[in-house]
Design goal:
Oligomer: single chain
Strand order of the largest sheet: 3-4-9-5-8-7
Number of strands: 13
Number of helices: 13
Order of helices and strands: HHHHHHEHHHHEEEEHEEEHEHEEEE
Radius of gyration: 29 Å
Shape: extended
Largest sheet: 6 strands, mixed, barrel
Helix content: 25-40%
């Protein structure tokens, strides 16, 4: 009964936040009661598991992150100095008692709003991202990106047998190809292929069939579901080249191909796409690029606020990385780059030579735009904390409503809707903003 009562108290105790350190006294009362009971020979064996990580770690999980780190340091030091497997429960109680006095001492209470000194504490990150799709908000299980499996052109390039095997392994519905919460036998979704318009299969399961006796000129014209051909209008043909086979509009933004490397190892560079976002005041990097570069960054905790609500994220911070244009003419050093696993990799937003060639006023910059490499992802988001990268060195504009181009230090970019004649209606809206609060 004693053991059960103490466990219930600990289980019912709420997690302590950074602003609720006064609750440490309530936790200390429970821990002191446990420590006192452990001194009673009747309960010593019964409560001995509190002298192990199995007993203490669940309690540590209820502490703020910075107190968890402090305990890890103290416990590790105690283990080494005493050559034991794990510190005793009495050391943890002593640690909480010290933290109660330190964190609740009014002599060390600071007003972050009126403070005029530069704080070394890592600030919070607020990221607001809105992805609105007319079909589905399910992320692609193949690329872990913000598009659906039906929107994934890379998935449709696989043979139909491989696509069926992938759906079977992921237990995804063969009919709608959007979820693993039901099967095709009980799927109620009215599917329609965005490529051929067939209502018997989803876009992800579309198969391109070509007859053996078609000429090369005929092959350049996409077939409809009944074997006929699309209009021979030049605008439609060109726009199919730009937007792809799916009837979706294409909009380009400030995304460039760059080489990223550590300051002390310029020969070990990694080529990625970088999104240049002047609505973000900090620079973000994906965990994959973090690991590829072998960065030994510091761990930090941030409060991420998005359209899905607030969440606490633990991530790494790179002290310094370098980004270089692919022509090697411009190099920038980025400081305190924050790890983020939600940078959207929207490859259709990247301008290609075909996009520039389709517009007379942008034709001259087509040779400066590298071809799209589907094997490379957007793994860097450069905010306005590096203002030199955002400087516009040259700009080319066309008629009203047409896309325009800018020459930045890292290369040329094309901005705007590039769908010729507006024959494709967009079905997706992307809004991204990242902001770091100065008050932490």
């Amino acid at each position: 009964m004693v053991e059960s009562a103490l466990k219930r108290k600990l289980n019912a105790f709420q997690t302590i936040t950074n602003k609720d350190c006064v609750k440490l006294y309530d936790l200390l009362d429970i821990l002191t009661e446990i420590e006192s009971s452990m001194l009673n020979p009747k309960y010593t064996t019964l409560l001995s598991y509190y002298n192990s990580s199995s007993g203490i770690n669940p309690i540590v999980a209820k502490l703020p992150y910075f107190l968890q780190e402090k305990w890890t340091t103290r416990a590790s030091s105690y283990k080494k100095s005493h050559d034991i497997a794990f510190p005793p429960f009495s050391l943890f109680v002593s640690y909480i008692r010290d933290m109660c006095e330190i964190r609740n001492d009014p002599a060390f209470s600071y007003n972050s709003v009126n403070s005029t000194t530069n704080s070394k504490q890592r600030p919070s990150v607020i990221s607001r991202r809105l992805d609105v799709s007319s079909e589905s908000s399910v992320r692609c299980p193949l690329h872990k990106a913000g598009h659906t499996l039906n929107d994934c052109r890379g998935f449709r390039k696989y043979p139909i047998q491989d696509r069926q095997k992938f759906l079977r392994e992921k237990r995804i519905c063969f009919k709608c190809c959007e979820t693993n919460e039901h099967f095709a036998s009980n799927c109620t979704v009215n599917v329609k292929c965005a490529v051929c318009g067939n209502k018997r299969h989803a876009t992800a399961m579309h198969i391109d069939r070509y007859t053996q006796n078609r000429t090369q000129a005929d092959n350049e014209k996409p077939l409809t579901a009944d074997g006929g051909e699309h209009s021979e209008d030049n605008v439609t043909v060109k726009c199919t080249t730009l937007c792809g086979d799916i009837r979706v509009g294409r909009s380009c933004g400030k995304t460039v191909l760059v080489d990223v490397y550590l300051p002390n190892a310029p020969e070990k560079s990694t080529r990625v796409y970088a999104a240049i976002d002047d609505q973000s005041n900090r620079t973000l990097i994906t965990p994959e690029l973090f690991d590829d570069l072998g960065i030994q960054g510091q761990h930090a905790q941030f409060n991420m606020s998005s359209c899905n609500g607030n969440s606490t994220m633990k991530c790494r911070v790179a002290d310094s990385i370098c980004v270089r244009s692919i022509d090697g003419k411009s190099t920038f050093e980025l400081q305190d780059v924050i790890e983020c696993d939600s940078i959207p990799s929207e490859l259709p937003e990247i301008a290609t030579p075909e996009v520039a060639s389709a517009y007379s006023h942008l034709h001259r910059i087509s040779s400066y735009l590298p071809p799209l490499d589907p094997s490379i992802k957007v793994e860097l988001l450069i905010g306005r904390d590096i203002p030199d990268i955002h400087h516009v060195q040259e700009q080319i504009t066309g008629d009203k409503g047409e896309p325009f181009a800018q020459r930045l230090a890292l290369g040329w970019v094309v901005i705007g809707e590039v769908c010729l004649g507006k024959v494709h209606a967009p079905n997706k809206i992307s809004v991204r903003k990242t902001h770091v609060l100065n008050d932490g």
